[in-house]
Design brief:
This protein is α/β, with parallel strands linked by helices. The chain contains ten helices and ten strands. It has two domains: 166 residues, 3-Layer(aba) Sandwich (Rossmann fold), CATH 3.40.50.300; 80 residues, no CATH class. The strands form two sheets. Strands 6-7-8-3-9-10 form a six-stranded mixed β-sheet, with helices on both faces. The protein is globular, with a radius of gyration of 19 Å. The model has no long low-confidence stretch (mean pLDDT 91). It binds adenosine-5'-diphosphate and magnesium ion (MG). The site of magnesium ion has 3 residues, from helix 1.
Amino acid sequence: MSSLLEIKNATLKFGGVVAVNDLSFTVEEGEVYAIVGPNGAGKSTVFNLISRFYDPYSGSITFDGKNLLDRNADQVADLGIARTFQNIELFDHATVLQNLLVGRHRHRRTTMLEEMLFTPRVRREEKRHREAVEEVIDFLDLQPYRNKMIAGLPYGVRKVVEVGRALATGPRLLLLDEPASGLSVEETQDMRWWIDDIRKQMGITVLMVEHDMGLVSGVSDRVLALADGAKLAEGTPAEVQSDPAVIEAYLGAGAA
Ligand SMILES: Nc1ncnc2c1ncn2[C@@H]1O[C@H](COP(=O)(O)OP(=O)(O)O)[C@@H](O)[C@H]1O
Ligand SMILES: [Mg+2]
């Protein structure tokens, strides 16, 4: 049985900087897999490779056995890969509901003409999208913010809405780029429950980049420690945290 996501020997350079260096790892269906590492380690770049924002210089990436490098960013989303961004990317002057409906866009099967005529098929589709979005709103406890403009919402709520926008697309694999960055201790705890529920109740596989080791240890099955774009260590959260190479990379030479 093949892994849900397989990255093999991926390398990406920006000019003289090797952002991702001969990196290989797999993510299995149903797991929460975390990537940790210092700033500039290449974590976001790995996400950008998977989402097909960047082309690797060499290597291969497959999802459910399909070659992602043959596909563009829209096609990758169609295969069931959704993501959030390190710096929240929502429409600030639209409501929570509207932002989540945009996330449903890839499921539209009706034509423009049908939409202009508002045919029964269009009405049925609209209803289906609304229902899917309302489910996500319920799931993430976003009812109080449903019709609020994004711009006026607290940062912590916007982080949850970003997760909701990705969930509304109905993904099989969810990529979360620093879901807890900027969150309070309490909000980080909530985020931990959301990620747990996303995996357990929705059955979605999660690949996340995160700095908060408490969150990483709490939700992840496996952790990959990245340094200078290459694999430093991989294993359970406890294994990775006690790995001498990881301790050294985080605390400086001599600490191990
Ligand atoms: N678009 C880009 N152009 C040039 N260099 C980049 C670009 N994106 C990332 N880098 C460089 O690649 C390296 C990895 O960056 P990044 O993946 O953002 O790290 P992380 O998310 O782990 O903090 C860094 O040295 C960064 O400066
Ligand atoms: Mg980053």
